[in-house]
Amino acid sequence: MTPTHDDVAGVHTLGRWPADRARLHPERVAVVDRGVELTYGELARRANLLASALLRAGYRGGDRVATLVGNSADHVVTFFACARAGLVLVPLSWRLTPVELADQLLRSDPAVLLVEEETRTLARTALARTGARVPTAYLGEDGVERTVPAPWHGAGEPAPSRPGGPVADDDPLLMVFTSGSSARPKAAVLTHASCYWTNLSLSRTLELDESDVVLSVMPQFHVGGWNVQPLLAWWTGATVVLERSFDPGRVLRLVAEHGVTTMMGVPTHYARLADHPRFADADFGSLRGAVVGGAPMPAPLLRIYHSRGVALTQGYGLTEAGPNVLCVPPREAMDRVGWAGVPYPHVDVRLADAVTGEVLEGPATGELMVRGPGMFAGYFRDEDATRAIWRDGWLATGDVATRDASGYLRIVDRLRNIFISGGENVAPAEVEAVLQTHPAVEDAVVVGVPDERWGERGVALVVRRPGVVTDETELVEHCRDRLASFKVPSAVHLVHELPYLSVGKVAREHALRAALAAEGLEVR
């Protein structure tokens, strides 16, 4: 069964994009993956082949296709095949431990898992922990479209021959796990329409066209690996150069070799580039702009890039918003260092009192609320969490922002206590829960402290159980065995007690001051 335009009924569905571009310029390069080029004609053909193979095998509309792969042409083919067939792509992080991955596999309940050689052992170990029967395809040199296994529907349950109907704008397309204030990451569901509107608003700021070459280094298990530049590039007919990991020397070489015109990274990426020995002599003639996300860009680093003629667009967002919410246009970047910016087109924001919910007008400080057609559809199988984040049609970001008289916003605090290390969100509650599984730990709190390289890093304060012996090294190793590396505390300090509020909650501001003092950092 080959999907046709009748099967892709929604005008805002993304499965149309490769075929639309292929009709105009089939020979134009869509993807460069480790030196191998994939044209728009080939992308459209391969995506359609995979969509057809998935439908013939019996996968039904709404089924989840989990992936455990790096940035690759096969992953792009899989994304657009899912979009054509009405399936949902669930890109899982290869940085997770088997314990974490097993939890996400159980909660995402995929109909099939696609892995590659580099992640085969991780996948097998995680699947063994779940006890679930998930058909698994191991990608090889023949292409992902030739490795589709039959689905497992359970005893006596027939496999359907096609999905439930034509793909609609509001059908789910992408499911991304995101760190929240809870101990377990939640799966945010983005629809075709939300991805369409996110990229439409982004196009009003980035203004990509088919002559652009985008360097994509953000992992595709993050929403930014799709909805910040790459999808917009494939919509407009540009070329995307994929990188599987960030290596500053290789990035500098790729910019020159491919004539890269724009890229996206976190401040840590740009700092590592600027520190590279070849940075001063690097050819940036083609690089007209770049996007910064994850955290504010430090002023000295911003000046370095502006002196090289690279206009930077600072942005703020969250997965649940697609992710794009605010941006600082390049022309104002030097005057707005540390600011998150103004809303993207098609995005509305407001500030609300974090206690009363009262809407705040004019210059004010309050919780940032967001709405627009690019917002997510909800958390997968978690109605309580979905209801909690929506308030009267507005998405509550959990971030406190201040707004000046001109409408610019600055993020000043996080209600949900998340800190950002090297562009990765870390939920302290998740790390604390792991620490508290150690038999020597009675209580623990984790906070983020400033770090020149990573932006922030985790520091844990731990109360030891009476009569039980442990040390900082043992507790760090305990975390390392159970958490992705970016979540592991950089330091653990044993303390007699944690600071608590009268209501029984940890006084995190006091804990932060204690952690800063223990690390020899300036107490804020």
TrEMBL record:
Protein's name in the database: Fatty-acyl-CoA synthase
The organism's place on the tree of life at top rank: Bacteria
Domain AMP-binding enzyme C-terminal residues, every copy: 430-505
SUPFAM superfamilies per record: Acetyl-CoA synthetase-like
InterPro entries referenced in this protein's UniProt entry, alphabetically: AMP-bd_C, AMP-bd_C_sf, AMP-dep_synth/lig_dom, ANL_N_sf, ATP-dep_AMP-bd_enzyme
Family matches, as Pfam families: AMP-binding, AMP-binding_C
Annotated ranges, domain AMP-dependent synthetase/ligase: 20-380
GO molecular function terms listed in the Swiss-Prot or TrEMBL record: acid-thiol ligase activity
